[in-house]
Automatic annotation (TrEMBL):
Keywords: Methyltransferase, S-adenosyl-L-methionine, Transferase. The lineage of its organism: Eukaryota, Metazoa, Chordata, Craniata, Vertebrata. The keyword Transmembrane does not apply. One of its GO terms (biological process) is methylation. InterPro entries: Methyltransf_16, SAM-dependent_MTases_sf. This is MT21C methyltransferase. PANTHER family: HEPATOCELLULAR CARCINOMA-ASSOCIATED ANTIGEN (PTHR14614), PROTEIN-LYSINE METHYLTRANSFERASE METTL21C (PTHR14614:SF13). SUPFAM superfamilies: S-adenosyl-L-methionine-dependent methyltransferases. Pfam families: Methyltransf_16 (PF10294). GO terms for molecular function: methyltransferase activity.
Length: 221
């Protein structure tokens, strides 16, 4: 239930100050690894948003509660790939998905940060919310232990398609972890719909960043 009191956290400034003057690379440290993320100013999906930092930090700190080792993990709206890279470091079989125009930067970041690691090789795939799910990810073949989503809700018109996509992948036995910065009334409207569809708990709040981290599971019919 939502009654459980969420833990109140702060997003730690655990990125390394950049030495170069270019705005295209950010350096982070999670789970003992330095991660270098190339951002792109052309696309929303190619910037590291606070929800990604919040979820990365939470996964690092709560490895007993959410053990990703050898688990199948799907990230929707993976953006720059930071969360997928952290999940990979934690031992998951990761599939990172996003819109076609974001995939090149996403693939670059993921391969660059995981190539020398002794981990399962992550996969990068196109996923447009609500489109071609049965064809591209048939239920008979694809079952995920965890669905990860960060800052997927902002001013855009694809919210119904996003919710449908979450419902499609969040089968019984799947845990959905969603971290988001809440800015607009539409964000809270989506949250209300989300809570009506899933069994939902707020795991953590990051008040300084207006980020909430939610855990959701499928409702038993």
């Amino acid at each position: 239930s939502l009654i459980d009191s969420p833990v109140i956290l702060k997003i730690l400034q655990n990125w390394v100050p950049r030495v170069s003057h270019y705005f295209d690379k950010e350096h982070y440290t999670y789970v003992g690894h330095q991660i270098v993320i190339q951002e792109s100013i052309e696309h929303f999906g190619a910037v590291v948003w606070p929800g990604a930092l919040a979820l990365s930090q939470y996964l690092e700190s709560n490895q007993e509660q959410f053990n990703l080792k050898d688990k199948k993990v799907l990230e929707i709206g993976a953006g720059t790939g930071l969360v997928s890279i952290v999940a990979c470091i934690l031992g998951a079989y990761v599939t990172a998905t996003d819109m076609p125009e974001v995939l090149e930067n996403l693939s670059y970041n993921i391969s660059r940060n995981t190539q020398n690691m002794n981990t399962h090789k992550p996969e990068v795939r196109k996923l447009v919310w609500g489109e071609g799910l049965n064809e591209d990810f048939p239920v008979s073949t694809y079952h995920y232990d965890f669905i990860l989503a960060t800052d997927v809700v902002y001013h855009h018109t694809a919210l119904d398609a996003l919710l449908a996509t979450m419902v499609y992948f969040c089968k019984p036995g799947t845990v959905l972890l969603w971290a988001n910065k809440f800015r607009f009334s539409t964000d809270y409207e989506f949250l209300e719909k989300f809570c009506n569809v899933f069994n939902t708990t707020i795991l953590a709040e990051f008040p300084e960043s207006n980020v909430k981290l939610l855990k959701a599971t499928a409702r038993e019919n």
